[in-house]
Amino acid sequence: MAWREKSKKHLKMTSFNIAQGIHGFDYHSQLNLIATAGIDNKVCLWNPYVVSKPVGVLWGHSASVIAVQFFAARKQLFSFSRDKVLRLWDIQHQLSIQRISCFFPKSQDFRCLFHFDEAHGRLFISFNNQLALLAMKSEAGKRVTSHKKAVTCVLYNSVLKQVISSDVGSTISFWMIDTGQKIKQFTGCHGNAEISTMALDANETRLLTGSTDGTVKVWDLNGCCHHTLNVGQEGAVDISHILVLKKTILVTGWDRSITVFRPQNFNQFSIQPEEWKGGIQHHDDILCAAFSPPQTLVTGSYDGEIVLWNNSTENAHYVLHPDYQRLLKSKSDTGPQKLLGAGRSPSTHPTYDQATLGACSFEMDTECNHAVMRLCFLEARKNITETGGANLVSCGGSGYVRFWDTFKKQLLAEFLAHSGVGSIIMSTDKSNRYLATGDLEGWLKIWNIEEYCLNSSKNKLTQAPALIRSVRPHEDWISSLEMCEAGGRSLVLSASADCSICATDVCGVPVQIFGQEKHWQLENCSSVPKRDTNLMGNKIQEKSIKEIRLFSKEESCLDPSKHSLLDKKTYSVRPSEVINLGVKYMETHDLYDGGIIRKSCSSFRSLSIGTLKELPEVNKPAFLLDPEKYFREGPEEQCPQIPEFPSLSETLKAIFDEKNLFPKEILDHERRAKQLCQETSSEVKIKRNKKP
Prior knowledge:
Blueprint: E1 2-4, E2 11-13, E3 22-28, E4 33-38, E5 43-46, E6 56-58, E7 65-71, E8 76-81, E9 86-90, E10 95-100, E11 112-117, E12 122-127, E13 130-135, E14 151-157, E15 162-167, E16 172-176, E17 182-186, E18 195-200, E19 206-211, E20 215-220, E21 225-230, E22 241-244, E23 249-252, E24 259-261, E25 270-271, E26 286-292, E27 296-301, E28 306-310, E29 315-320, E30 325-327, E31 336-340, E32 351-353, H1 354-364, E33 372-377, H2 384-387, E34 392-396, E35 400-405, E36 410-416, E37 425-428, E38 434-438, E39 444-448, E40 466-471, E41 478-486, E42 489-496, E43 501-505, E44 512-513, H3 535-553, E45 591-593, E46 596-598, H4 622-625, H5 627-631, H6 648-659, H7 664-689
Parallel strand pairs: 21-25
Antiparallel strand pairs: 1-2, 3-4, 4-5, 5-6, 7-8, 8-9, 9-10, 11-12, 12-13, 14-15, 15-16, 16-17, 18-19, 19-20, 20-21, 22-23, 23-24, 26-27, 27-28, 28-29, 29-30, 30-31, 31-32, 33-34, 34-35, 35-36, 37-38, 38-39, 39-40, 41-42, 42-43, 43-44, 45-46
Protein name: WD repeat domain 49
InterPro entries: WD-EF-hand_domain, WD40/YVTN_repeat-like_dom_sf, WD40_PAC1, WD40_repeat_CS, WD40_repeat_dom_sf, WD40_rpt
WD repeats: 58-99, 144-185, 195-222, 279-319
């Protein structure tokens, strides 16, 4: 070991001499311990400043230990031995709390590499050319789950006011948006295959589910399957998106092509795909698609290309990319293509071969920096062709969100929504006022895009729109987002790999989980004004008023005494550990307005407080008017005295008197006898007192 002490330039060196040697070691900085994997079947714990002997020895392995690694958060230790036995140790008590074996490959001679991803609870162990993955199950007692397995997609049915969700276990669940409770569930919809995506038709009476088994099924809302669309031709494929149009159903996700089905030809249960006239225009897998009436179709791929199609002719005519734009003449044209700059004339740029452009784009995006995960048209923006603003939003690789003008084929703006988390997904409401983005760490951000990129500009805009809210409703990556209007409120529905579905209000009230024990009630609350120069200030004031109303009605929603287990920066939202009392959340966050950070406490300065109304007279309860009646101490209870029992003769006499068994003469004679006895006894006493 070597370390540099303060105010000294030289390194201080120490060494450990361990009998028989070790295979590996790990260091715990908080506990200041070193764990060694010994050849002598022991795991030793060392203090770096005490080199003479270990401070603890962990016994239990029957073969040499080849790998050790600390579980820093729980102060535990993993150890793996040559006989393929994994042990988990409690460091403080130096006891083995778990032993795992018989789950690893049967190879005899192997080289092992050991890595524990503590952030996600995944343990990787390599055996030559094989890799074993052990995932830790989350503690179900500390959070509420909506599904038993990871949720893959969430939709909102505005007609029935229901939320529809799917998971990797091929289960579909229906939830009430007003209370968050499950009303029905379909299991085994695609056998054991994962449901990767879903879609509703225009009337919201049919549900389409896409699975990894290569099929798309058409269901009614009672669980009856009407058609099976054979997308993968009896093979397993990765279906990423289903787009339901008036006359066609488009399915994308693999093989760089679009698979088309025409509902007017659905005369059988099993349906085969038809030919897409546009052919293949992408150089990588298609991940998403979007449609804008009357005929504009866009598709986004893994390499960052967005292809514009004419849905009527099924021909592609343009390619958008953050680094270049390209004009497509026809599907069969393999000649030179013109490279167009953003908003510039085609004649001012050199020509490149299409294959060369594809190779360049692939080389530029080998790490998924530009992958297009979601595409959304901003349909609520009227007269966008005259003003020249953005009408298409894309997001994906590296956490960027981009705004495009599809009429002028120009990239107007891009900003970093989530940094250092890889690809993101998004969703927008019908009025295109809000944009919700979610990342791989469970963070959700809500942006105000109502007045963002309304006009075209020669220079690309890099400033982000106003951030309304940033919360973490999930513990794992967010797989699907959907925005809806319910109960007069704008909600963001999010599905995650942590098996939960959450409803997050744009206004800032606590997050709710579908399936929680406590029912929630959606209350009508006024929305944020559409046009206001001081938009963020109004949002702060409105958020504060709504939170005050909520807390006065239900104070148990927040519990400030709890401490977050998943803290990150200044934002944290987590479910409470107490499940039987309903789901509670703790939320602490700052509100951003430009570059200035305003603390949430400053929002109370703008509250308008009027004169207090006089309270009416309240009748006092009876226990306050007459406290002695309700609270006085009762008299001490006296011990009951045991009565003297009457003599046997009196008892018999009473009995026979009641039944008239003795004649009157006998009773008179008895009285006379008693009287004579008394007179005789008195005479005897008198004679004794007289002198002789």
